[in-house]
Amino acid sequence: MDFISNLALGLSAALTPYNILFCFVGTLLGTLVGVLPGIGPTATIAMLLPITLSLSPETSLIMLAGIYYGAQYGGSTTAILINLPGESSSAVTALDGYQMARQGRAGPALAAAALSSFFAGTIATVFVAALAPPLTKIALQFGSPEYFALMVLGLAASVVLASGSVLKTIAMVSMGLIFGLVGTDINTGAMRFTLGRAELADGLNFVAVAVGIFGIAEILRNLEVTVQRIAVVKRVAGLWPSREDLKTIFAPACRGTALGSALGVLPGGGAILASFASYALEKKISKTPERFGKGAIEGVAGPEAANNAGAQTSFIPMLTLGVPANPVMALMIGAMIIQGIVPGPQVATSQPVLFWGLIASMWIGNFLLVVLNLPLIGLWVRLLTVPYAVLFPAILAFASIGVYSVNSNTFDLYVMAAFGVFGYVLAKLEFEPAPMLLGFVLGPLLEEHLRRAMTISHGDPMVFVNRPISATLLVVAMAVLAIAFIPDIAKRRKEVFVEED
Amino acid sequence: MKPTLTIAALALSVTPVFAADYPDRSIFMVVPYAAGGPTDTIARLTADAMSKSLGQQIVVENVAGAGGTIGARRVADADPDGYTILVHHIGMATAPALYRQLPYKPLEAFEPIGLVSDAPMTVISRSDLGPETFEDLLAFIKEKGTNVTYAHAGLGAASHLCGTLFMSTIGTRMTTVPYKGNGPIMTDLIGKQIDMTCDQATNTVGPITQNQVKAYAITSEERAETLPDVRTTTEAGLPTFKLGVWHGVYAPKGTPKEVVEKLSSALQAAMDDATLKQRFAQIATIPATKEQATPDALHTKLDSEIKRWDPIIKAAGEFAD
Amino acid sequence: MDIKNLAASLVLLVTGLSFGLTSFFGMDVGSALRMGPGYFPLVLSILITGIGLAVGLKAVTVSVPFHPQYAPVRSIVAIIAAPILFGMTIRGLGFVPAVLLTAISAAMAAKGQRPHIAAVIALAITAFCLAVFYYGLGLPVRLFGPWIGV
């Protein structure tokens, strides 16, 4: 097979001691910086980018790939340990990961995240190597109607995320959607809900909102008792997942890998849905859905696998079309140009060593990540034994610097403070923040694709049902919604019958 | 003390010492767009090359937002000591027409340092659109009018300016479809979801040479080296349809003359840098000549571009705030 | 009365109405086929307001005891002040004072924290941030800003 010889070429390029060293350094730096609260993968890569520019193109890209995986894993670590997600996908990891940490199972949660990420990364690398061109063809079938339908499906699935009232969850998603619309309307240039501030013209900063609504709200909840009595973790149980844990996470990791690989290929925001979709799926098919949100290890493994697989396959549009699927890919493209490589479909033929070396280094990066992080788990878990009186001011300082570093924008810090208060109020009123965050990232995409689809079709709404992919996705969305509401209805019916008896 | 007096006093006491030793610490170069984009790339390459002759590091700081106006305002308000400078593109000249509440005046708030680069635009379409030549395309648009979809990357983006100029030159309106950034446009164009756009050659050379999109014309005086088969708009019979995405370096108003001169000569030296020349060529960008990389040349360019775009944008009736 | 859900309903009503009224009066709403900038927000606001009403109506019909635990006002103020202080001082005072102020404010948030311990914690955090962000990562900031004459 062709791709095996290509992969061998890539491996031989990537597996020089020199490149392995830089891949390792990249993974290490990415992990260390990404683990700082409030600093997500995009900020980490932007900060570490200049270090790579003095290296040769291959080595520099291989190191960047290492930084990318390290930063992502570092972000998940922060989400699990202190409930502070640095990007939308780790908001899902925080749901059950943080609960596990509170129960003293931070070790197994981190290991589950690392192992399922590695598993997903391995499968997805083969996917990228073998199927990049055909997958690109499928991705190109997705126009705005299809993306709109996909987002609707994602929102329908988000209702399943709820562990409390369905009505309140829908309210949270809608609130997230509307917060996502703050800023310039791209169709008309009109300012929406910007309160006259130019800083809000590009919308609310995701990291500021996420840190506020998750991190600051969580700190305030912990500060309800006096400093001597605060302890986030009562006790630390085993560091390693038990045999039973491993058995439990295998199937979710497989399903997460499949979902993530498929969604990651779509450059119009598909990857955003991967971890949310995986979580919703695991909860739906679980025999004990009530454990989700209270420390279910499947709720960590599935989304982490999906996220990592999606991260991998989101390289496909960049490699085959030269089009960035997300801000991280845009940074990679910038780095390539500065290195003198013009990204695009010609890279595979004009620079085969670089192209296949990069793909091979994805796997090496994932491998090194596991090698590096399994021993580090002990260290991360020990971080939880740092007195909380020291930990939370540090979290706030890091988060402030992290939020500021994204755009050098001081206004983002005020947004973070405001959402901290709002998040605390919401938490006290038993609203859940994760569905809101999903709405926040999907809001602009949903509206953008809806209105673009209508513009391109010259105002004909039939465009959503006439196109097969979009029609299918919308039908699936209806089905998901129906499934979400049926247990409620069934339960009520049962109650009614009981009363009649 | 009144604020003006304080500033005056500070300027008097500090300036002479500064100018002689300048630069004795690292310089911040503000890029008003996100890291990884074309302006960021051009800024990083220029900063690197300029550092060499200045003997101090130039640190790139991305201050993104509101079509580049937040970063520009930051520099307009910065201390005029030469340690905060700005790289901005054609948006500097179009902002006064697009933003009714622009908090600074481009010609008055900055000391121009010099031009950096110019990149031509290419008119491209999905690969299966009917017309084969630029002339056919014009006839096609005139016949179909608003049935043709034209994608742009948001108000004020190069693709938006190009589209506005194109439509005002040929006197026919198409349906404009706004996107967030150039990446998604290219995906939709390759995927045949929209009809056409006009984008920097920087972004289009790859897809054009791979025949993933169809190219009709390039908006420069001469053909591009990387796209030898694409005719210029003059050759195709529409000589008034000309524009390029140019970049310039600016310092805040009141920066000492000596400092401006030092920066300007560093910029001129940078334009001669072998790596920079090679990288610019790869992304179909033309580095400024020695004469263009001067304060006077940038001032003249900015002034003429503001005058040129003002009526075009106002006639289109679009505002970004 | 279910006080908690009544408050929840209030939050939803306030959000829904303020966004809804802004979209309706301040923006071009358009129609379903030709959506203006206000259309999508208006639909969402109506949904949020509707849910707010439903939650509120249900809350007044049932009776649930409500004994919430709150963080002390001092903690809330100190925590929220931390990022705000950072934002107000990072450009004027520079990185070192800004981080120090942020960390002190945050460290004082813990109920029963003594000032000298908070100061030590804040100094340690500042030193760490200086090493990591400024020297390690080359964050483009000034250590001391123009307000203190550097």
Mind explaining what this structure looks like?
The complex is a heterotrimer of chains A (501), B (321) and C (150). By secondary structure, chain A is mainly α. Chain A has one domain. Chain A has helices at 2-14, 17-34, 41-52, 57-82, 88-102, 106-140, 144-161, 166-180, 206-222, 243-264, 270-285, 298-313, 315-321, 327-338, 347-350, 352-383, 388-407, 411-428, 433-456, 463-466, 468-500, and strands at 183-184, 191-192. Chain A has a two-stranded antiparallel sheet with strand order 1-2. In chain B, strand 5, helix 7 and strand 6 (175-178) form a beta-alpha-beta unit. Chain B has helices at residues 3-21, 38-54, 69-76, 91-98, 106-109, 134-144, 158-170, 182-190, 201-209, 257-270, 274-282, 295-316; strands at residues 27-31, 58-62, 84-88, 110-126, 149-152, 175-178, 196-200, 213-218, 244-252, 286-287. In chain B, helix 2 crosses helix 10. Chain C is built from 5 helices and no strands. Chain C has helices at 3-26, 39-61, 73-89, 95-107, 115-136. The chains are: A mainly alpha (501), B alpha/beta (321), C mainly alpha (150). Chains A and C meet through helix 3, helix 8, helix 9, helix 17 and helix 18 of A and helix 1, helix 2, helix 3, helix 4 and helix 5 of C.
Topology:
The complex is a heterotrimer of chains A (501), B (321) and C (150).
Chain A: H1 2-14, H2 17-34, H3 41-52, H4 57-82, H5 88-102, H6 106-140, H7 144-161, H8 166-180, E1 183-184, E2 191-192, H9 206-222, H10 243-264, H11 270-285, H12 298-313, H13 315-321, H14 327-338, H15 347-350, H16 352-383, H17 388-407, H18 411-428, H19 433-456, H20 463-466, H21 468-500
Antiparallel strand pairs in A: 1-2
Chain B: H1 3-21, E1 27-31, H2 38-54, E2 58-62, H3 69-76, E3 84-88, H4 91-98, H5 106-109, E4 110-126, H6 134-144, E5 149-152, H7 158-170, E6 175-178, H8 182-190, E7 196-200, H9 201-209, E8 213-218, E9 244-252, H10 257-270, H11 274-282, E10 286-287, H12 295-316
Parallel strand pairs in B: 1-2, 1-3, 5-6
Antiparallel strand pairs in B: 3-9, 4-7, 4-8, 4-9, 4-10
Helix pairs in contact in B: 2-10, 2-11, 4-12
Chain C: H1 3-26, H2 39-61, H3 73-89, H4 95-107, H5 115-136
Helix pairs in contact in C: 1-2, 3-4, 4-5
